[in-house]
């Protein structure tokens, strides 16, 4: 790499005394680009342009070890370079290029040889940004009350990553073995994570595990809430596509989702004329299906009764109860009660009041009556007709 007069002037701005071209070893480094890296994070072009002036004058070290003895080079100029292709987020690919120099000294001779030979090639940068924004919902990834998405996961076919916005400082750049970015490598910040703290304070591990478990439960709750709001929205707003609804709910927090859920529930009730109560205890059943052409009531009754062991019913006000029949309720009949008539009914499944058996070949019939059941008002009559063969397996039911 040849040095121009402009390059020498920029280098002299960094050095304490004028240097000649023969004393300097110049080289260029690819600091970072605008593609999603191994950490699931990305610098948009705007952030790269903000970082460019911040890296001028920053020293190069090894493995991000902050030590004066590790300083080997310094950046004197930077620029954002365009390249072919499209990065995630739809913008054209680009990267931040740094122009660095080091002194041609005896101690740097081996390092210069390794750079020329391609041994020392990968670099990583230490910098900080003000915001980490979710690519799915646009909320701050640090605010888990508004965003529950996880970097690297897919949501309805869209991969989640963090958009690194508003560069605030650049610390250094380092030669490393495995950078976070495939072509350059990047360390976005120097603030320790909770896992880093646990490494130095093992006694905090149980507390970290508890926090992670609570966070996982919160993410599951928000995910189910978003699914429910999208489902209700499809009923309340038939003209709104489900894909659009899901895109909307993915950007909302818990408080906004709850308010929208109440609104959609009111609209569904108004549109379909059905009010429900008691469904809070019903559990979701994976893979539940009903036959093609089944009525809405069949679907509700089958799900509630078979999957949750509850008998759904409507009261006289038209409210659908999903918490089962209330048994054991006592009623007292007195002269003060405005009662016209009262009939005692008892459901007794599987009890027959009368059975008629007919032998079609011998023209013989016989009737058996359940007198105690008949006396109590029970009515359930069955007729059994016997064909030529009189085995039990030959009997068939032919009426009621």
Number of domains: 3
Distance between the termini: 101 Å
Helix and strand run: HEEHEEEHEEEEEHHHHEHEEEEHEE
**Which spans have pLDDT < 50 for at least 5 consecutive residues?**
184-192, 388-400
Helicity range of the residues? 25-40%
Report mean pLDDT, rounded to a whole number: 79
Percentage beta strand: 25-35%
Total of DSSP H or I helical runs spanning 4+ residues: 9
Q: What's the main sheet like?
A: 8 strands, mixed
Question: What Rg do the Cα atoms give?
Answer: 38 Å
In one word, what is the shape?
rod-shaped
According to DSSP, the number of beta strands is 17
Structural class by helix and strand composition: alpha/beta
Report on this structure.
It is a single chain. This protein has three domains: 5-191, no CATH class; 207-273, no CATH class; 354-399, no CATH class. It is 28% helix and 26% strand. The radius of gyration is 38 Å and the shape is rod-shaped. Strands 1, 2, 3, 4, 5, 6, 9 and 10 form an eight-stranded mixed sheet that branches. Mean pLDDT is 79; it is low at 184-192 and 388-400. The protein is α/β, with parallel strands linked by helices and 400 residues long. It has helices at residues 5-14, 45-55, 109-116, 194-200, 205-236, 242-249, 254-272, 296-308, 371-375; strands spanning 24-33, 41-42, 59-62, 73-86, 92-103, 123-134, 154-155, 158-159, 162-175, 186-187, 275-277, 313-314, 319-321, 354-359, 364-369, 381-386, 396-399.
